[in-house]
From TrEMBL:
Signal peptide: none
Species of the source: Exiguobacterium alkaliphilum
Gene3D superfamilies: 2.170.120.30, YbbR-like domain
Pfam families, per the entry: YbbR
The protein, known as: CdaR family protein
Domain of life: Bacteria
InterPro entries associated with the record: c-di-AMP_regulator (IPR053154), YbbR (IPR012505)
């Protein structure tokens, strides 16, 4: 019950008044005992100092106010009873009123109220210079800058960060946010050996590196950084054993997925050309068949992106000359140069293969005339940030020829600023 009374302002005021009266009689008794010639007791004078938050009155929907001090020191002098009540009740304000002012710089008075009529109030500052700007809200993208990638454990790399949300709303004075085009979050990946998530407050800095006084919504960004062992995308090769039934022939083996990501140390990846299936038994097969083949993990590799793959076995009679649409009859592998476009050489360095082994499928007569010069391999890097990326390959091949693999090629973009920082640290 008493706790509920203590939460009411008027209860506190009554208590303060009672204390003030008690203090009055104590002072009066002291005064009468020391000065019998005085007809009336004199209430004691006192002083104290408070740090009071500064309130601002203005249209917060349309405007933003800058340079407003968070709090000011206030010196108070007056009867001890009044100061005691002031300390207990806290029914006072220090404020600046901007309600009738437009945009620009203004020197405005600092006002105080609620301290009591018999209390002398001395403010730390009588006026403050305020800047009023029109409020504006813009939506900007969020990006991630990976720090200390060179300090990852050996054999590990980071992938593209997943950012949630990918854009935020920034609100503030129009003159202050006009140059805000992007928010970049710095994340330290040193010594990380597994995927991790961070929740970070977005901070916008001015030209001097100081936090800009703006509001960002939402005020927490969730970033997931994939960390995994060194990997590469490698073509899959179907291996068979045994023979189909008499009077039949194996026309082709068609893969649902033609390549797989392999996780392994760099020296192992450098010597990997293909990932083979465990041999598929063809004995007695006399028609088309779909099987699920297990992929073999190469020596020295730690994992595969998938363990199994579907294989369509095309089996025809020896005298059957059908060439159904989509059922290709021959394959060839060529080494083809890789070209790139959309690469920002000013801000990034690029690590990517110069050549790639391309597997093509088509009719035998057509494939016999296909050479490396007949195939174009291009990677479009437009807009890619710093980091490791699996880039879809753009192919140019002769009509009637189908690309089996690879469908993606790994590239790594490194910011020039990151390389400069790494060099300076070494």
């Amino acid at each position: 019950m008493i706790d509920q009374w203590l939460q009411h302002k008027w209860f506190l005021r009554i208590i303060a008044l009672a204390l003030a009266i008690l203090l009055y009689f104590m002072v009066a008794e002291t005064s009468s005992s020391t000065s019998s010639s005085s007809a009336l007791p004199i209430v004691g004078q006192s002083s104290m100092a408070l740090d009071v938050p500064v309130e601002v009155f203005f249209d917060e929907v349309q405007y933003v106010a800058y340079n407003v001090p968070e709090e000011l020191n206030v010196e108070l002098q007056g009867p001890s009873s009044s100061l005691t009540m002031t300390r207990l009740v806290k029914d006072y304000q220090v404020f600046v009123d901007l309600t009738n002012l437009g945009t620009g710089f203004h020197r405005v008075p600092v006002e105080a109220r609620g301290f009591g009529g018999d209390v002398n109030v001395k403010l730390e500052r009588d006026t403050v210079e305020i800047y009023i700007d029109r409020k504006q809200t813009v939506e900007v993208p969020v990006s991630v800058n990976m720090l200390n990638k060179d300090q990852l454990p050996e054999g590990y790399v980071v992938g593209d960060a997943e950012i949630e949300p990918t854009t935020v709303k920034v609100s503030g004075g129009a003159s202050r946010i006009q140059n805000v085009k992007e928010i970049t979050l710095n994340i330290d990946v040193a010594n990380q050996n597994q995927t991790f998530t961070r929740e970070l407050p977005p901070t916008i800095l001015d030209a001097n590196g100081n936090p800009l006084n703006v509001t960002v919504e939402p005020n927490i960004i969730r970033v997931t950084v994939p960390v995994y062992e060194q990997s590469a995308v490698v073509p899959i090769e179907v291996v068979t054993t045994g023979d189909v039934a008499d009077e039949y022939r194996l026309v082709d083996t068609l893969l649902a997925d033609t390549e797989v990501r392999v996780f392994a140390p760099t020296d192992v990846l450098a010597n990997l050309d293909v990932i083979e299936t465990i041999p598929i038994d063809l004995d007695g097969l006399d028609g088309n068949n779909k099987v699920t083949a297990t992929l073999q993990l190469p020596d020295g590799a730690t994992a595969l992106g998938k363990k199994e793959v579907e294989v369509q076995l095309l089996v025809r009679g020896i005298d059957d000359t059908r060439d159904d649409s989509g059922e290709l009859t021959e394959r060839v592998r060529l080494t083809v140069p890789v070209s790139v476009r959309g690469f920002d050489r000013t801000n990034y360095t690029l690590r990517s293969p110069d050549v790639v082994s391309v597997t093509l499928s088509g009719k035998r007569a057509l494939l016999e005339s296909v050479t490396s010069n007949s195939v174009g391999v291009t990677l479009d890097l437009t807009g890619l940030p710093s980091g490791l990326h699996g880039v879809d390959v753009d192919y140019e091949v002769p009509k009637g020829v189908t690309v089996v693999s690879p469908k993606t090629i790994d590239v790594e973009l490194t910011s020039v600023d990151d390389e400069t920082e790494t060099s300076s640290l070494q």
